[in-house]
UniProtKB/TrEMBL annotation:
Organism: Dipodomys ordii (Ord's kangaroo rat)
MARVEL domain sequence ranges: 32-158
Transmembrane portions of the chain: 65-86, 106-125, 131-155
GO CC list: early endosome membrane; plasma membrane; recycling endosome membrane
Name by which UniProt lists this protein: CKLF-like MARVEL transmembrane domain-containing protein 6
Gene field: Cmtm6
Lineage top rank: taxon: Eukaryota
């Protein structure tokens, strides 16, 4: 038997062109989040990274416990916000239960915002009044972005609950005859 007769019905000539584009834009989409949440997520990512970088350039510290705690929290906040942004903007969002993604985002954002605010307060209180205040200011702003995002999610949850709330039917209307 000739090789062409065996392989022609099962083999594609150019399989790449039939699949479509497989670039960065095919995997990354910001449309799952409203515009204000996209802005808040981007600011969380940027400000937590800036807080971490500003903290890393501090040459010396007097009470280093606050500095180390701030370092840990700012790095963790950056990584968690990056993880949440990746989940929201990639096809991974479609593979995970949407309710779990929303719930995880809700609690992670609240926890990160509160701990970041606490770490910024501790860092400022144990700081030797040096240039580290710049890092702490990025920490405060980043923690407020996390808390603003939490408030936005809380508002969205309340709006969804209002839409799902069933109508209340008056008891009087049920006792009246239909053909009166």
């Amino acid at each position: 038997m000739e090789n062409g007769a065996v392989y022609s019905p099962t083999t594609e000539e150019n399989p790449g062109s039939a699949r479509g584009a497989r670039g960065f834009a095919a995997y990354f989409s910001l449309t799952r989040l409203p515009w204000y949440r996209r802005v808040l997520k981007g600011l969380q990512l940027l400000l937590s990274l800036l807080a971490f970088i500003c903290e890393e350039v501090i040459p010396e510290c007097t009470l280093c416990g606050g500095l180390y705690f701030f370092e840990f929290v700012s790095c963790s906040a950056f990584l968690l916000s990056l993880l949440l942004l990746i989940v929201h903007c990639t096809p991974l969002h479609d593979r995970v239960d949407a309710g779990k993604v929303k719930s995880s985002d809700f609690y992670i954002t609240l926890g990160t915002g509160c701990v970041f605010l606490l770490a910024s307060i501790i860092f400022v209180s144990t700081d030797g009044r040096t240039i580290a205040e710049v890092a702490a200011s990025f920490g405060f702003i980043a923690s407020f972005m996390f808390l603003f995002d939490f408030i936005a999610m809380l508002y969205e949850k309340r709006q969804e609950a209002q839409l799902r709330k069933p109508e209340t039917i008056k008891a009087e209307a049920l006792t009246e005859p239909l053909n009166a």
